[in-house]
Amino acid sequence: MPRRPPAPHLPQPDGPRGVSSLSADKTLTGVATLTLRACAPTSTCSLDTRDLAITAVADASGAALAHSFGTSTEALGTALTVELAAPLAAGESVTLKISYATSPESMAVQWLPPSQTAGGTHPYMFTQCQAIHARALLPCQDSPGVKSPYTAALTVPDGLVGLMSAICTDFPEGGGSRVFKFEQTVPMPSYLIAIAAGNLEKRDVGPRTAVWSEPEMVEAGAYEFAETESFVALGEQIMTPYEWGRYDVLLLPPSFPYGGMENPCE
Predict the structure, then answer these.
(1) Is 183 inside a domain boundary?
(2) Buried b / exposed e across 207-223, counting CB within 10 Å, b at 16+?
(3) Residues of the domain holding 124
(4) H or E, element range at 229
(5) CB-hemisphere CA count at 13 Å for 148?
(6) pTM for the structure as a whole
(7) Which has the closest alpha carbon to 124: 139, 135, 115, 112?
(8) What is the pLDDT, as a whole number, of residue 19?
(9) Total tally of structural domains belonging to the chain
(10) Is the Cβ–Cβ distance between 50 and 58 less than 8 Å?
(11) Low-confidence ranges of the chain (pLDDT < 70)
């Protein structure tokens, strides 16, 4: 069996919730629901963005909130400032619902035509948010010092499978457009949010470990990573119990330009 190169594992105190869908024009559209807790009295909330089209900002009831963009910089993108409906005292929380779309040139999202995949038939999309590219995927507080859990619903086109750096709580079967749901209960920084969508199959290599890849590569990947479960168990003996729930490996197409990425769960 030929050896395969290493591949990556495969997007606010109470954490974000997101509903996203993939489109043919190389954009990801969605609604990010953020629950934020004030560290000090404030009447505004600032979020990181980069090349995001913000179409609406509302509170938990759906009431529109005034918002504005700061000056864009090449390194940091553009700050989004939201005017809250009422001032917050320290320790109080607010929920924001932000409708948005990514740019076709997003620094966080890469779109592969079929010719760049192993199968050559279906397109493929994956994200890469390290180090501060999550702001190009969704409005957020894009700093490693801000950690949160998240839930998400990902809509993908017919024939494709969606994965995220979280536990899949609803894996729909059947044809047509499908909505995959995910939950990440471990607070984590925004750069570890990840999405992948393509013609993917799964091969279990242990009770909490699996390999995902295109059908043309999945058997070789399962062979290569057959000992993943034993590696995780040995790590637990040396250190602490593994808290992410699953340790799956996602093998990206041959055109994948990076060495790998340590996204949780996937």
Answers:
(1) yes
(2) ebbbbbbbebbbebbbe
(3) 15-27+107-250
(4) helix 228-238
(5) 22
(6) 0.90
(7) 112
(8) 61
(9) 1
(10) no
(11) 1-16, 18-23
